[in-house]
Specification:
Blueprint: H1 9-23, H2 35-64, E1 67-68, E2 76-77, H3 81-86, H4 90-122, H5 128-140, H6 143-153, H7 160-167, H8 184-209, H9 213-221, H10 226-237, H11 239-254, H12 258-263, H13 275-285, H14 292-323
Antiparallel strand pairs: 1-2
Helix pairs in contact: 2-14, 4-8, 4-11, 5-8, 11-14, 13-14
């Protein structure tokens, strides 16, 4: 507050009014622009970049989906023809099935494996620092490196998997893991889990260290076994973290592209085809020269992913409220 001698009389009243105006959260000083103008000055560059690299492509894709776009020809409006063609596209529905398998199975493996690794480190196993670095290292590798590495591991002649199987007398189990339609998709999912389990491990480990020690000590005083404490105490308290990881992993798997494209390009016999790889093929890899149909696939899948993400988030939030 200003000193009392400065607040007496008319100058003091003006000073008090100025102090109140400065302290007001939505007031601006004389001669300065309003706060919302300042906010827009700082936000506008980011909005321009977002509109140019995200907003416009989304709108352009939606526009392409209702047009026939061929080289050296004007775009022809076709309405919902492309959307109707999706209903009879067998390869698209095969890609949808594979993508849904990725989206519902792989997150459980990613988060479950990360939780197990975090529990190992949390229990202070020997060499915990070494294992923390080793288990997190795959996260730092690019998809190109991971794909090439696992293609070597799955090699039929000298790959680690088949060499180990032959070494223990299981020669009949050796197979072309990426060339067999029955094993290609699980093989890709295993490589993907290997890459991302370390990320989930770090998040789960941070959540474990943030758990209240009083609750864990009370469980020990009640002679609660390790598995009982894990299932009835630790996992329920980690539920918000695990649900967040599952949602993030689900969204990522619905868009999986890099690993599949580098390792199998959707083969063999469409057994690893995903919606992302099929969209890319129809747009740039096939000789159809029509950007309208792949744009339709992209729009449909964008709506599916957005709806699933919003629905899962609302569902888990509501269940959390009911629990408490």
């Amino acid at each position: 507050m200003p000193p009392a001698e400065l607040t007496a009389g008319a100058p003091g009243r003006r000073l008090r009014a100025l102090v109140r105006r400065v302290r007001s959260p939505d007031a601006a000083l004389p001669g300065l622009a309003p706060p919302w103008t300042l906010v827009m000055v700082f936000v506008m560059p980011a909005l321009i970049v977002y509109a140019g690299f995200t907003g416009y492509p989304v709108l352009r894709t939606a526009w392409n989906s209702v047009h026939l776009i061929l080289p050296n020809q004007d775009a022809a409006f076709v309405g919902g023809v492309h959307y109707g063609a999706i209903l009879t596209d067998e390869i698209f529905w095969r890609a949808v099935r594979n993508t849904l398998v990725w989206a519902f199975v792989s997150p459980l493996l990613d988060v479950g494996g990360g939780l197990l690794l975090a529990l190992c480190l949390y229990s202070k196993v020997a060499g915990a620092r070494f294992f923390r670095v080793v288990w997190f290292t795959p996260v730092l590798l690019s998809y190109v490196v991971v794909a090439i590495l696992w293609r070597w591991i799955y090699n039929y002649d000298w790959g680690v998997v088949n060499v180990l199987l032959r070494g223990v007398g299981l020669d009949s189990w050796a197979t072309t893991w990426l060339g067999n339609p029955d094993t290609a998709l699980p093989a890709l999912m295993l490589a993907h889990v290997w890459k991302w389990a370390g990320f989930n491990m770090v998040v789960c480990l941070a959540a474990l260290h943030a758990l209240p020690s009083e609750v864990l000590e009370a469980a020990d005083l009640d002679h609660c076994g390790w598995w009982a404490k894990l299932w009835h105490v630790i996992v329920p308290m980690l539920r918000p973290t695990l649900l967040s990881l599952l949602i993030l992993s689900f969204i990522g798997k619905m868009k999986v592209f890099d690993l599949v494209w580098i390792m199998t390009r959707g083969g063999p016999m469409w057994s690893t085809e995903t919606v992302a790889t099929y969209t890319y093929k129809r747009a740039f890899d096939w000789s159809s020269f029509d950007l309208g149909y792949p744009s339709t696939i992209a729009v449909v899948w964008f709506v599916v992913v957005m709806g699933a993400s919003v629905g899962l988030t609302a569902l888990f939030r509501q269940r959390g409220r009911l629990e408490y």
